[in-house]
Amino acid sequence: MSVAPHLANDRLTRDIVYPFANANFMARNPPLCIEGGEDVYVFDGRGKRYVDGQAGLWNVNVGHGRPEVKQAIVAQLDKLSFYSMFGNTTTAPSIELAELMCRLTANEEMKRVFFSSGGSEAVEAAIKLVRQFWRLSGHPGRTKFISLRLGYHGVTLGALSLNGRTPYREQYEPLLPGFFQIEPPYLYRNPFTSDPIELGRICAELLEREIVYQGPDSVAAFIAEPIQGAGGVIVPPPNFWPLVREICDRHGVLLISDEVVTGFGRSGSMLGCRAFGVKPDIMTFAKGINSGYVPLGATMINGRVAAAFESDDDNEFTPRAFMHGNTYSGHPLACAAAIANLGIVERENLPANAAAVGGYLLQRLNAIAPRHPNIGDIRGMGLMIGIELVANKATRRPFDLSERFGARIWERCVENGVLIRNLADTFIISPPLTLKREHADAIVDVFDAAISAVERE
Ligand SMILES: Cc1ncc(COP(=O)(O)O)c(C=O)c1O
């Protein structure tokens, strides 16, 4: 598949350990080397154009090569490329960005931001903030975390311990003790009901049962993605999140919304939790915070959590100090990129565009689905859409991955200039939020032709 004319195929894989990849597979199937990008398009080394139906990795929300973001990075680079946030120094872009983020999350009553370099680090910081919050609040026994099966929160050992997918976990066990997963509200595949509202109620009740079973005084927090992304775009029924908030409140458990994918517009709302009318205690961000122009992660806390870290004592090593930080916390280039990026998200009202074009994509996909015996389910919200393929539509039997059904569709899509992600035979469409209807048409037409061809084979 290599189309990097200046790189011999073996060089694409010889020296790199690729993420989530088998080395032999990669050597036999050299990756597509992307060398250019402009708005919703990316280009390979031969200049072939692709619609970027995955926005890089659901992160390039404002599109590739935006001059406003580039100029902000260059202007910052001309002033200062890096200085530390440790040891009583700081830099201006982090301060400006924190103010902006507090304004954008004022409705959710977020009060302070901790900066890191990506989603896993943002989640890791959330775990440590929660543990320390409970110690500082006089409840050191509240240490356990509950999350959802099929949830994805990152790869560092804390974040990984929250993940709910066996292949990500099993090679690295034992994971951290005190981390538990419950069934997600996955309408297409669950042992309970086909009624969404009933499912929302049942899954929320499972959370309450787990809290009671663990002993509420031992449970620190529940964390979930507002819409489960890497688990296959699982959109919860509308009653799920409000019930979760009620249950957390009833048992004094903190609620963390992992907004790494949903944050800043992708779901069609500015925040995923806002789409469901819920105010969490903590939020984690990365990806769309600056569309991936420079790595950045952020963890936000509300007034209740922030208050535990405040005291009259100004000894810098008091237990109230958050004993956590990354060299690149608040990296000036990343923060400058984020300020410019969030400016575009607001000015161009990209959440509204995500809702409109996402709705159109869903409508077009639902129109082609009946013609395809192997499209089991189509679901999504905003510009996060999942197409779940099945070997048998009536029984919902999944494909054996060794049949490479999804992989063959993916190859045809690439040949025909569309990049969409194939995760365990659920195709994920998560393009830049600047996507227009004509790009949505291109994605659907190419996918439609690709699955038709593979079904005929
Ligand atoms: C919801 C969620 N949380 C956390 C992460 C981890 O982010 P990163 O890959 O930047 O470490 C991801 C990555 O996809 C994610 O989707």
Strand count, sense and barrel status of the largest sheet are: 7 strands, mixed
Structural class: alpha/beta
Distinct bound molecules: pyridoxal-5'-phosphate
Q: Kindly provide the radius of gyration, computed on alpha-carbon positions and rounded to a whole number of angstroms.
A: 22 Å
Strand order of the largest sheet: 4-10-9-8-7-5-6
CATH-derived architecture of the largest domain = 3-Layer(aba) Sandwich
The share of residues in helices is: 25-40%
Uncertain ranges:
none
User: What is the first-to-last residue Cα distance?
Assistant: 20 Å
> Count of helices?
16
Number of strands: 15
- The CATH superfamily of the largest domain appears as Type I PLP-dependent aspartate aminotransferase-like (Major domain)
The CATH class of the largest domain:
Alpha Beta
What is the CATH T-level topology of the largest domain? Aspartate Aminotransferase, domain 2
Q: Strand-residue fraction?
A: 15-25%
Total tally of structural domains: 2
Which helices and strands appear, and what pairs or packs with what?
Elements: H1 9-13, H2 23-28, E1 34-38, E2 41-44, E3 49-52, H3 55-58, H4 67-79, H5 92-104, E4 110-116, H6 119-136, E5 144-148, H7 157-162, H8 166-169, E6 179-182, H9 196-214, E7 219-224, H10 240-250, E8 254-258, H11 272-275, E9 282-285, E10 297-302, H12 303-308, H13 332-347, H14 350-368, E11 375-381, E12 384-389, H15 405-415, E13 418-419, E14 421-423, E15 426-429, H16 437-456
Parallel strand pairs: 3-13, 5-6, 5-7, 7-8, 8-9
Antiparallel strand pairs: 1-2, 2-3, 4-10, 9-10, 11-12, 12-15, 14-15
The structure holds pyridoxal-5'-phosphate.
